[in-house]
Amino acid sequence: MAFIARSLLLTSLFVGSTSAQQCDINFNYGVIIDPAHVRIVDQGQTYVQINGQHQLFVNGREILLTDKQKEQLSDYTTGIRSQVPAIVSIAIEGVELGLKAVNKVISGLTGENSASHQQFQERFDEMKSRLRARFNHSDDSYYIAPQDFDDFDEVFAGEFEKEIETIVSNSVGTILIAVGEAMTHREEQSSEQRAETFDQRIETMGNDIKLDISNQANALEEKAAIICASLVQLDALENKLQLEIPALSEFNLIETD
């Protein structure tokens, strides 16, 4: 039926609902931040470690720095500590925006307080908790694996996108049963009228969700543009470190096109 096909197609909104901001920047290594250290990790081994703002270790060896080098390293460390949490934040916001879109579809189809919707809500809340725990271990601790930031909304979404699709696919029967019951209860209307009314409801809901998601996605895109520009500036600082500190001559965390 047309209304069923259309309602199920709405679940694809979460795939394209988040920011599509292009950012031609790569992280060639993993980055771990905690209150005391910034660690740059290459294939599971710490390549560069910065203790505080000024103490530098490369491949486990402390590198003695001049005052000028310490100042440059401090600027770079400050930038890393600022940008990594911002990247994690915007990626999490993007995934949560997608979850919100799917959740609205399900609540619109089955009813906000229905058992089906509550079950979905519990699954999505659990997914959001796992997402945050994976990349934001505490208020001051973050981790990012080597990444291509070409699309901010795809930074962390892959496995969670597949999980959302699985949840929805496995629950299509439950959704359709709830939809059928909702339509059957409209005894004052003919079956054709009920189908038409529900089809109109789906179309209105889809338009409302698109408007809501579009506004939030635009805000995310503005944030992504700011982060991207900041990463370009941070890459320039990194290039100076490579020139000023011989031990970092081959170090290249940030790569810009």
How is this fold's topology laid out?
Elements: H1 2-9, H2 13-16, E1 25-27, E2 30-33, E3 37-42, E4 45-51, E5 55-58, E6 61-63, H3 67-110, H4 115-135, E7 136-138, E8 141-144, E9 147-148, H5 158-170, H6 172-184, H7 191-244, E10 254-256
Summed up:
With 257 residues, the chain is α+β, with helices and mostly antiparallel strands.
Strand content: 15-25%
- Fraction of helical residues: 55-70%
Q: Number of DSSP strands?
A: 10
SSE pattern:
HHEEEEEEHHEEEHHHE
* Global geometry: elongated
What Rg do the Cα atoms give?
Answer: 24 Å
User: How many domains make up the coordinates?
Assistant: 1
Separation of termini? 48 Å
Q: Pick out the low-confidence regions.
A: 1-20
Specify the structural class. Answer: alpha+beta
- What is the overall pLDDT average? 77
How does the major sheet shape up? 7 strands, antiparallel
Explain what you see:
Helix content is 61%, strand content 15%. The chain has 257 residues and is an alpha+beta fold. Helix 3 (67-110) packs antiparallel against helix 4 (115-135). The longest helix is centred in the C-terminal third of the chain and has 54 residues, at 191-244. Residues 1-20 have low confidence and may be disordered.
